[in-house]
# Entry
Amino acid sequence: MTPARLKLIVLDGDCALIQVLSSVKCSLFDYTEIHCTLRVDGDFELTMEVETAQLHGEVNALLDALRSLQSVRSAEAVGGRRHPERL
# Structure
């Protein structure tokens, strides 16, 4: 499995967080760690670690799908792998 850490800013709205998590699952990713913080401006900052057996390019496709949601203000991949493999 290839892990990736994502950071999203999600608008405070009806079912916004559920919509994001459903999109992740529909894109054939598993989320293993989720942290959600309510920001001062009322939006949510969502940090999640997702895993997939697919190629790295699929993470970019997931980010594009998340950015297309009306409830998502921004979505980006952050950080590196926790245990980089030696080549």
Observations:
- The mean pLDDT is 85.
- The longest helix spans residues 16-26.
